Amino acid sequence: MQPHARHALENWHTAWTAQQDAALAAFATAFPGLARMDRPTGCCDPRMKVERHGEATGFVCFDDHGRATVDFAGIPQTTLGRALEVIFGCGWFEEGPEGIAAAPPGTYNWDDEATYAEFEIKVEADATASICMSYVTVEDAVVLLDQLQHQLVEHSATAEEP
């Protein structure tokens, strides 16, 4: 490889690594407890996991195309429902007029044709839920993580009131 091409590629790699690190920092800021996973991660190397029992367990990753995946389970259904309602309103996942917070057990999906993002919500019989948002922008992932964190804090404060 010619020196000027090698230098340009090195500059790109440095910038891409910085972008990956910035995405992971944004995820961890929005949802405390996320920790970077060691390699091999099982998918994207920039991958973080969280285990907050009773709140959420799962991972967030940043792929080679600059898209994020958020895959969390064990979230209180009403908490996830409130977070999604704040972000999207009700009705995006065909769960009914009351939104995910009141949806019966089942799997609810929505695909964003404009961005190719995929959303899957699973509501369990035990009043917990999971969410898998795939191929979303870093901004969309951070908005969800931040709102989910906010709703978990609200849920915790409400549960502690006498």
Characteristics:
162 residues, alpha+beta, seven-stranded antiparallel sheet, elongated
Task: Summarize the structure in words.
- With 162 residues, the protein is α+β, with helices and mostly antiparallel strands.
- It is 39% helix and 28% strand.
- The chain contains 3 helices and 7 strands, in the order αββββαβββα.
- The mean pLDDT is 89.
Q: Distance N terminus to C terminus?
A: 69 Å
Helix/strand structural class? alpha+beta
Helix content: 25-40%
Shape: elongated
Average per-residue pLDDT, rounded, comes to: 89
- The number of distinct β-strands equals 7
Task: Calculate Rg over CA atoms.
Answer: 18 Å
Order of helices and strands: HEEEEHEEEH
Work out the strand percent.
25-35%
Total number of helical segments?
3
Q: Major sheet, described briefly? A: 7 strands, antiparallel
Main sheet: strand order: 1-2-3-4-7-6-5
Low-confidence stretches: none
SSE blueprint:
Elements: H1 3-30, E1 35-36, E2 47-52, E3 56-62, E4 68-76, H2 77-88, E5 106-111, E6 118-123, E7 128-136, H3 138-160
Antiparallel strand pairs: 1-2, 2-3, 3-4, 4-7, 5-6, 6-7
Helix pairs in contact: 1-3, 2-3
Q: How do you describe this structure in short?
A:
The protein is α+β, with helices and mostly antiparallel strands and 162 residues long.
